[in-house]
């Protein structure tokens, strides 16, 4: 992974759409069932919408029935960071992009084999790069 990307909120607002900013920088979430990647089955790689850091391979995506795109594992062990989240009266594990610290979603221990994990992600926090296309450069 490349060095951490640290930008001011003003710089992030220039780079991101209002929806991306709300989720990635303000820890928002999209409504269940509304994300553009919910039913996507196209092979490829999912990258962070904030910095293009590669996050998930499409082969690890599964239908969880939760209303958000779900994955069983990260592309690499250093693609993501996990942080204890005690907001909204719950104890969860927040998932962030390891490069830009953008909020992606949460991970739960109720996924299918082989990992038993469900990375429940916001579509707006990611971009999909179809198989065979070059990955975009990680932003600086």
TrEMBL record:
InterPro entries: Met_Sox_Rdtase_MsrB (IPR028427), Met_Sox_Rdtase_MsrB_dom (IPR002579), Mss4-like_sf (IPR011057). Binds 1 zinc ion per subunit. The zinc ion is important for the structural integrity of the protein. NCBIfam families: peptide-methionine (R)-S-oxide reductase MsrB. This is Peptide methionine sulfoxide reductase MsrB. Belongs to the MsrB Met sulfoxide reductase family. It catalyses: L-methionyl-[protein] + [thioredoxin]-disulfide + H2O = L-methionyl-(R)-S-oxide-[protein] + [thioredoxin]-dithiol. Its cofactor is Zn(2+). It comes from the Bacteria. Keywords: Metal-binding, Oxidoreductase, Zinc. Residues 9-131 form the MsrB domain. Zn(2+) binds at residues 48, 51, 97, 100. Its EC number is 1.8.4.12. It comes from Corallococcus soli. The active site is at residue 120. Transmembrane segments: none annotated. One of its GO terms (molecular function) is peptide-methionine (R)-S-oxide reductase activity.
């Amino acid at each position: 992974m490349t060095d951490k990307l640290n930008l001011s909120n003003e710089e992030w607002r220039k780079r991101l759409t209002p929806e991306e900013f709300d989720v990635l920088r303000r820890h928002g979430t999209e409504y269940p069932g509304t994300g553009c990647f919910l039913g996507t089955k196209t092979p490829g790689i999912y990258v962070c919408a904030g910095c293009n850091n590669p996050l998930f391979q499409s082969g690890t995506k599964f239908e969880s029935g939760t209303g958000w795109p779900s994955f069983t594992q990260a592309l690499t062990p250093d693609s993501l960071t996990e942080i204890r989240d005690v907001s909204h009266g719950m104890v969860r594990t927040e998932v962030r992009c390891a490069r830009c610290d953008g909020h992606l979603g949460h991970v739960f221990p109720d996924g299918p084999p082989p990992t038993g994990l469900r990375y429940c992600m916001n579509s707006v926090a990611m971009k999909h790069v179809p198989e065979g296309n070059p990955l975009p450069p990680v932003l600086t």
